[in-house]
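ingest -> validate -> predict -> emit
validate: passed (alphabet ok, no gaps, 265 aa)
predict: started
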Amino acid sequence: MNHAPARPKKSFGQHFLHDRRYIDDIVRAIAPRDGDFLVEIGPGEGALTLPLLAAAGSLTAIELDTDLIPALQARASAVGELAIIHADVLKVDLKALAHRHGVERLRIAGNLPYYISSPILFHCVDHAAAIEDMHFMLQKEVVDRMAAEPGSKVYGRLSVMLQLACKVVPLFEVPPEAFRPPPKVDSAVVRVIPLPPHERHDADPELLHAVVKAAFGQRRKTLGNALRQLLDADAIRRADVDPKARAETLSPGDFVRLAKQLGAR
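emit:
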């Protein structure tokens, strides 16, 4: 049964990848293996779903748009075993999903809706212990922020929180014309690998989040001013950080020490 191409919905931020070259490049980057527990976020029309399914034999897709599901199931039926979870990915417990299927870790992929990409990234980081790796298509600006180093103009909260939990590897760019409809921005594919337990920080996650959010909330202020509701200048110095410095000059490890100082109060 042939299905007409879906009409992309602005409300879901849908841009369907259709260029075979980039689809093949993404599948090669993911390198799916038989037996992998693959999870695709936002499969859309199945451009990535079907080749991933063919390589791994089975795949779980999380799709919010009900209208896309019947055609996707029909296309996948002759390729492999596709399970579709009709849900908002932000409400899916990825750790529970892995546990329910008896696997230690998931491999996650997706062409993420650009308007909600940061919340999805933070959601995945919260479940990092249950994830082997992630391959995402994102707005290039977001990938630049994810991988930014201290001192960069785009280094910020997303950079710090992701790099403390994961290794971020930008892979390649994808032009607007590779999508239907073409987005007004350039896109890029990124590999995100959760750090092994011995490389992860040991600060309280809530305190770390509070420090990073406050520090970058007012970028032009010194840390002494930006963090004054949390830490005074002496406490900042005890973390081996200059209170006169600005957030964008600090390494991710500096924020860990600040969070520990906050926890020691």
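The chain has a mean pLDDT of 92.
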